[in-house]
Amino acid sequence: MTDTGVSVSTGLENVADLEATLESLLSVERFDPSAAFTRRLPMDADRAAAEADPNAFWARKAEELLTWHTPFTQVLDDSNPPFYTWFADGMLNLSENCLDRHVAAGRGERVAFHWHGEEGERRTVTYADLLADTQRLANGLRSLGVRAGDVVGIFLPMIPEVAVAMLACARIGAVHNVVFGGFAPSAVRERMEVSDAKVLITVDGARRKGRTAPVKAAVDAELGDLPALGHIVVVSGPGGTGAPMTAGRDVWYHELLATAAPDCPPEPLSAEHPLFILYSSGSTAKPKGILHTTAGYLLGATYTHRAVFDIDPDTDVYWCSADVGWITGHSYIVYGPLSNGVTSVMYEGAPDYPDYDIWWRLIEEYKVTVFYTAPTAIRTCIKWGARYPGRHDLSSLRVLGTVGEPINPKAWLWYHVVIGGGRCPIVDTWWQTETGSALISPLAGVTSTKPGSATLPLPGISPALLSEDGEPVTEGTGILVITKPWPSMLRTLYKDDERFVKTYFSRFGPSTYVVGDAARLDADGYFWIIGRIDDVINVSGHRLSTAEVESAIVAHEAVAEAAVVAQYDEQTGQAIVAFVTLAGDRSGDEATEAELREHVARRIGKLARPRRIIWADDLPKTRSGKIMRRLLRDIAEGRELGDVTTLRDPAVMAALTAKVGTAR
Ligand code: WT7
User: Fold this and answer.
1) So what's the ipTM on this one?
2) Maximum Cα–Cα distance for the chain, whole Å?
3) Which of 75, 339, 389, 473 could form a disulfide with 478 if both were Cys (CB 3.0 to 4.6 A apart)?
């Protein structure tokens, strides 16, 4: 147990000193909140209230933190599990909560986003600016025929227009479906097609490290013939390339705004009105359309953003380095921070452009106080070296956060020492696309932290561990479940209630949410997330399903069969390894390997490209023909093979082992 104070910030100039400092801290099991950290929000009352009566606690928070048109009288309806509703008879508008109420309170000139472009451009977007654009775009969308309940696709880079697009949908009750900008247009097509999107909002071109890719043209080629898609709205992005426009269907974003009426009163919507769909990978090739609704989701994002990071909207400058295309961006770049009325930094570019110090340069320039990123990013920064953050004054920072995957203690300590100067609490926030907001996490400055542990449930949240046969585990390893509904939980999978029930609520009954992670509980009741127990791979905090990657690979004409597994990777947490059997007498060479990787990038996106392709004459299968991925994982990670007795043909493994053994 230690208060690490500020004495550890010395090793920055000297690599050996830093190594020694980190080494010496590795034996520290627990970091108590530093005496130097002054928390701004009290939390004891919340904990006590939530323990006494979680529903009453959530009801009070919903009244305190959200602005309602019609107050709710009903809190949780659990009469039809797992189809829960929260605050169902209340009416509100989410964009009003994120914009109008701040402007009405005289905070219209407060900066919502300090946007920083890849080439160093700066744009200051105030709450009043956001409100003005949101109203015009909302009217513009209506003029294109969008009505409450219609789906609008959003495929945009990290520019303020992405927030405007989301808020404009929320203002008129349209359901947004954001696709991460790094996904391939064919993945956009799939997501638009299954959700019957009426309109897609995209960009002419997107910049990445000095190069601009034509987005709209690629979108046209893939989506041009979708029958439901009536219009494409095109933002002229910072990479401004111009774009082919189809008359009658396509419209420039700036022209739509210029001709739209400036006022669009927020439409009062039911608390359970659908807010967005976000596709995430599951254990089959078909991505899951996770559906969130209005009030419960907003409450989760607003409350946890405030409580976990100890946010004071009047003084904090907040920065979450994620992309809006992921749930982290939805909850902790757009909805949580805007609902709380905070000033944020939004950065367009990559962490290594123009140089490896860009993030730290931005923290210094905007005097960021709260910084939220992913373990994989921290490990990459460690690789680049402490000299890059060492060039900048990071003394404005007071709270650090991580999300996406378990953080290894070494990376936690580096973050603590090099970025946090030993004085900033680290909040390791565990949650999922499905949970809408963080569920297990320290409260900055309140919870004692242990490097690698997401620590304790947040107020109002009831996680537990179960054994394979459903017995409670009070200490040790088990299957992570949530035993009580919480406001920001997903409501269903879009148009697929059956898969919703089957995926999350079948194993231990209809009122126990099965997370899909294994975890360990220690003697202090701290949760340590181990990782996924389904066929989901976590690459740099991004979820990919083995089946999805396999079906992309198999779609290539040269491939007969493929099996995809995860391999431990120091940088990305996990990396994709594909075992591929080629068709006919094609042999695996470098050219074919490059072709396959490119093929996967085109079908899903670059992040799904296999790190390694291993050519296999045959794949290990059970007698019933099921591929034994467990054994392939052993091979990929160079481990002793597990049980092979159920294999149809054990010789297959011998051949593979011999091959990989020599290839490495
Ligand atoms: C999966 C959810 C939540 C936004 C980012 C990912 C893993 C997430 C942590 C953490 C250990 C974590 C879990 C989870 N995960 N945060 N702090 N510690 N693991 O959202 O794509 O829905 O993935 O990410 O395995 O189930 P997602």
Assistant:
1) 0.99
2) 74
3) 473
